[in-house]
Design goal:
alpha+beta; 2 domains; four-stranded antiparallel β-sheet; 56% helix
Length: 389
């Protein structure tokens, strides 16, 4: 390389110029990201210290309410008089087979110690001891586990309840699962809503195709850039794509929920509107990237614009159009969970309700259902793209 080649037009070495340019870019990047860090209030310490707060939520989500089993129960009661009166209640009748309770005393005052002994219960089973006043709300006192003989002993204090001459009740209840597991009610509801979600996304994508395909040809510069009138159409169509895409599906769902009322139809319209713009942009960019050779050859034969599109453009865009459409259907399935927040139908509506009610095991069923469906659709769309592209 000559000295002249190693210098810029002002005679400065190019290496020095490049290094100063790199330093300038680096300084700008540091300033931009420093400001962005402050504006977005990034706090890595909170990210670490706040992690234990979500353990409960994550644990329930990864253990969803998928299966249920029938429940059996066993219980026994004993009377307790508060305060002591005349006559005092008698102890429960002893039985050789039926469960019963024996109290260390059958009357007393709040705060006094009380021993509760149970017999003939189901062995090795967890139960709950409850106190039922004649007036007021039943309260749980303590959990217990029966031994191999169905026996247990608990020491409690007489709870602070309103004193009454009517009999109070001490109840011991055991519950356990029986039979084979079967799909829970949550799983059945999520399955039905997941089917609705898939078809909601399908209908939205299908409606979008019929509008996005013709608009994509009008939004392709290589097809509409030759004349002043078509250039105006091009900018109008591309402007429509950009404006509609900039409005989130959640906003469209709010608009259509007011328009056609809450339900899956509002979700179809919201996703369909956003899909028209998204698919239209992808389709038009694909048209712009096709091989111009066939277009020139068809035009040389005297073909009009419609014939050019049919014979020179369409054969080149069918495979990518199909791939984009399947991918958009996949996106719409995931986006339907968001529009469910505003009544757009599908499984998203259930998911938002369960999260708001802190029912994370039920929400976990919806989350896993969405994950499985999206994974299956991704696999299917990949296989289809492999066949057609």
């Amino acid at each position: 390389m000559s000295d002249q080649e190693g210098k810029d037009m002002k005679g400065r070495p190019r290496g020095l110029l490049s290094s100063w340019r790199f330093v300038g870019v680096l300084l700008v990047a540091i300033i931009v990201y420093s400001y962005g860090w402050r504006v977005t209030e990034i706090d890595l310490q909170t990210l670490v210290t706040g992690a234990p707060d979500i353990v409960h939520i994550v644990t329930q989500i990864i253990q969803p309410d998928l299966l249920s089993r029938d429940r059996a129960y066993q219980s026994a009661y004993a009377g307790f008089l508060l305060p002591c009166g005349d006559p005092s209640p008698a102890q429960a009748t002893r039985s050789e087979s039926e469960p019963y309770l024996v109290l260390s005393q059958t009357c007393g005052s709040p705060g006094e110690p009380l021993s509760v002994e149970g017999f003939n219960f189901r062995p090795n089973t967890r139960g709950t001891l409850r106190w039922t006043p004649p007036v007021g709300t039943q309260r749980s006192l303590q959990h217990f586990d029966s031994d191999e003989n169905g026996h247990f002993v608990l020491g409690i204090s007489v709870p602070e309840v309103a004193e009454s001459e009517e009999l109070q009740q001490v109840e011991a209840e055991l519950r356990w699962s029986v039979g084979l597991p079967y799909p829970s009610e949550t799983a059945r509801v999520v399955f039905e809503k997941m089917i609705e979600t898939v078809f909601l996304a399908l209908m939205a994508t299908s409606f979008a195709i019929f509008i996005a395909v013709p608009l994509s040809f009008l939004g392709a510069r290589n097809l509409t850039g030759g004349h002043r009138g078509t250039v105006i159409i091009y900018f109008a169509v591309r402007g429509f794509f950009n404006i509609v895409r900039s409005i989130e599906p959640l906003i469209w769902a709010i608009i259509f929920a007011v328009w056609v009322s809450i339900g899956p139809f509002a979700g179809v319209l919201a996703l369909g509107m956003h899909s028209i713009a998204a698919l239209g942009k992808l389709y038009s960019e694909q048209v712009e990237s096709i091989d111009p050779g066939p277009i020139e050859a068809i035009r040389a034969t005297g073909a009009n614009a419609l014939q050019t599109i049919v014979y020179a453009v369409v054969p080149q865009i069918v495979p990518p159009y199909l791939a984009f459409t399947i991918y958009r259907w996949d996106i719409n399935v995931r986006m339907s969970t968001v529009i469910g927040m505003v009544g757009g139908g599908g499984v998203g509506f259930l998911l938002i309700q369960w999260v708001n009610l802190l029912r994370y095991k039920q929400a976990g069923v919806a989350v896993w259902a969405i994950t499985v469906v999206v994974w299956v659709m991704d696999y299917v769309s990949g296989a289809v793209r492999e066949k057609i592209v």
